[in-house]
Amino acid sequence: MSILSFKSKDIGIDLGTANILVTIKGKGIVLREPSVISVNAKTGGILATGFEAKEMLGRTPKEINAIKPLKDGVIADFTATKLLLKNILERVCKRYNAVRPRVLVGVPSGITEVEERAVEESIMRAGAREVYLIEEPMAAAIGAGIEIEEPSGNIIVDIGGGTTEVAVISLGGIVISNSLRVAGDELDEDIINYIKRELNLAIGESTAEQIKKQIGCAMPLMTEMSMEIKGRDLSTGLPKTETITSIQIEEAMKESIAKIVEIIKATLEKAPPELASDIMEKGIVLAGGGALIQNLDKLISMETGMPVYIADEPLDCVVKGTEKTLQEIEKLRTVLLNSRKRR
User: d(Cα 109, Cα 96) in Å, to the nearest integer?
Assistant: First the structure.
């Protein structure tokens, strides 16, 4: 069968460090879950995936392992990733009666051949007929509505859970890209360390993520925000409540955010002069969960001297890009990493 004849039950997957999103061509996003799996340490059987498994992080007895199998945008645990992908694909196929679908997966631009094969193998084992891969910044650009086939330069910055991907795109290809292993998870870690250091309080990952979403900012806000947080007092070992402000969280995330700004500037500096003028005119598009950090767009604009736009629904750009690619596969087949076919 031809690559051009994708049918209606084709499936797109955004294999993110923090979340996995699944789309079915023509139906939109059908699944959105944290990239977490919990398994029985003795039998290797799956106990839970997604939200249920995320609730178990840091709370499990020794016979249960709650795992985030993707770290810094790459597969850290092959076995757990295969189990997670197989479980998700089987559930989606069963719910939507998708028999042996063709699957397009968004993967980080720094993925190795070994990791590519691991992703393909996991999807094939879950019952797919064919597997195609697309680089996440390319998928994010397509999902953000950038006209990638035009002979002009565009720049996309996709700040996910594990990596920040910056890519200059022209004529349906990535002209230059950079991947930085500093993104949402690192910012959560910064918040945990800051609160430990400054407030002598131990908090968990989910609390740090909540703080980042509620009061995290890259530059001071017009009105300072604060929130109450609960944790363990490191002196007494007892539960304690503290109040933290947006100014403190800005300080906590400062170094990591500076690294994200630097990688954007470094990518812009390497862009061919012909494309640099297009980029200056069109500006920078931000995608991924990190795009929602308050005032990050303003900081990047101030540092680069360029307009910065946040994509509509930035968290969904990669998965929407996989769906659009499936819909226009004839036009966009050049963006696929592996156009070889599996049966």
Answer: 30
Give the mean model confidence (pLDDT) for residues 86-114.
87
Q: Please say if the pLDDT value at position 338 is more than 80.
A: no
Question: Which CATH number does 140-182+257-314 carry?
Answer: 3.30.420.40
The domain 184-252: what is its CATH number?
Answer: 3.90.640.10
Count CB neighbours of 100 within 10 A: 12
- Is the separation of the CB atoms in 65 and 38 below 8 Å? yes
Q: Can you give the pLDDT at residue 213?
A: 96
| Cβ burial, residue 302 (10 Å; 0-12/13-18/19+) | middle
SS3 content of the chain, % helix, strand, coil (to 5): 40, 25, 30
Are the C-beta atoms of residues 157 and 314 closer than 8 Å to each other?
Answer: no
Q: How far apart are CA 287 and CA 273, in angstroms?
A: 24
pLDDT for res 191: 98
What does the DSSP 8-state code read for residue 295?
Answer: T
**What distance lies between CA 181 and its chain's CA centroid?**
12
pLDDT of the residue at 97? 87
Domain limits of the chain? Answer: 11-136+317-335, 140-182+257-314, 184-252
Q: Position 259: which residue type?
A: K
Backbone φ, ψ for residue 251 (5° rounding): -60, -45
Average model confidence (pLDDT) across the chain = 89
Q: Using CA atoms, how far apart are residues 169 and 179, in angstroms rounded to an integer?
A: 14
DSSP H or E run through 284: strand 284-287
Measured between alpha carbons, how far apart are the two ends of the chain, in Å?
A: 10
Asked whether residue 3 carries a pLDDT value surpassing 70, the answer given is no
With both helix axes pointing from N to C terminus, report the angle between 296-304 and 246-270 in degrees, rounded to the nearest 10. Answer: 40
Residue 8 has pLDDT above 70, yes or no: no
Rounded to two decimals, the pTM is: 0.89
User: Facing residues of 217 across strands?
Assistant: 294
Pick the CATH number of 11-136+317-335 from 3.30.365.10, 2.60.40.10, 3.10.450.590, 3.30.420.40: 3.30.420.40
DSSP 201: E
